[in-house]
Design goal:
It is a single chain. By secondary structure, the chain is α/β, with parallel strands linked by helices. It has nine helices and eight strands. The N terminus is likely disordered.
């Protein structure tokens, strides 16, 4: 990581010159996660600054809230599967502990505390009735994707899966991804509506690909579930998808194309669109 990401030559240019060679080397180390691939497909510059250079940024309140809720759900699932389902008092204590670790204002803390109690308690009670006997929570995975192209290096793919459920024989049955935002329809998830880009669905396909490339066959599953912690109806809102061979193949092509653009450095010539990228200002033009 010891390179200067933006360098100028001669008189200051309108747009700093990106060290594309150094970026390509860093890409070979970092590769893609589902989130960073979605960032790249929105804007290569978003991926470059956010995921490669890791430009410091303040985590927004919604993301902080999601972090706290994910931590509580991890604990709740683990305890439930130990035949020790947490009571409301315990869940509230976990919520308070997680929220207190975050840099929240007093008003944000109060608001999120109330919101979490109203939504997380009934959510945990609902999923506790349907949990399998075994799950892996916060499961981190890293694999190498061999493109078969000698001009393209192995592509590193990574992910942190919220939950993988297993059946009685130890075979994975589904990947569950918790969402703390407003529930989405299937059409929005799949990118079939105006303004939706299919990022949620791509995330599930990405997880299926990760597990396909993983060296433990009993972890492989093509079923992905988006589980929405909050619902206006007060009932559990989940959308389940069975990932197809065609979707896996299409994702591989997207990954290969993005990696090729990084290796041949063609991404640098693209235009940074402020509507898609939060870092265009760093380019100075």
């Amino acid at each position: 990581d010891d390179f200067h990401p933006l360098s100028g030559v001669g008189s200051p240019p309108q747009r700093p010159i990106i060290d594309a060679d150094a970026a390509a080397r860093l890409f070979e180390q970092r590769g893609f996660s589902a989130t960073s691939l979605n960032n790249y497909l929105r804007s290569p510059f978003e991926y470059y600054f956010k995921n490669l250079l890791r430009v410091p940024e303040v985590q927004g309140v919604p993301m902080q809230y999601g972090t706290a809720v994910h931590d509580v759900l991890r604990r709740a699932v683990q305890e439930t599967q130990k035949n020790n389902p947490p009571k409301d008092k315990q869940i509230i204590a976990w919520l308070e502990h997680s929220l207190q670790k975050l840099p929240l204002s007093a008003s944000d803390y109060t608001r999120l505390h109330e919101r979490a109690i109203e939504t997380v308690l009934p959510y945990v009670a609902t999923i506790s009735n349907s949990l399998p006997t075994k799950s892996e929570t916060e499961f981190s995975i890293s694999v190498s994707f061999d493109t078969g192209n000698p001009d393209l290096p192995l592509i590193s793919l990574k992910g942190n899966l919220d939950r993988i459920d297993f059946n009685e024989t130890g075979q994975a049955t589904q990947v569950v991804d918790y969402k703390t935002g407003k529930p989405k329809s299937r059409n929005v998830i799949e990118g079939n509506t105006a303004g939706s880009d299919g990022a949620y669905k791509r995330q599930l396909v990405f997880y299926a690909l990760l597990l396909e490339l993983y060296d433990r066959e009993h972890f492989r599953t093509r079923t992905g579930v988006l589980s929405f912690v909050e619902s206006a109806t007060g009932t559990l809102k989940e959308e389940t998808f069975d990932v197809t061979d065609e979707e896996i193949a299409a994702l591989k092509e997207e990954i290969i194309l993005a990696a090729t653009e990084f290796v041949n450095k063609s991404w640098v010539t693209q235009t940074c669109d402020p509507a898609e990228c939060n870092y265009c200002y760093l380019l100075g033009g």
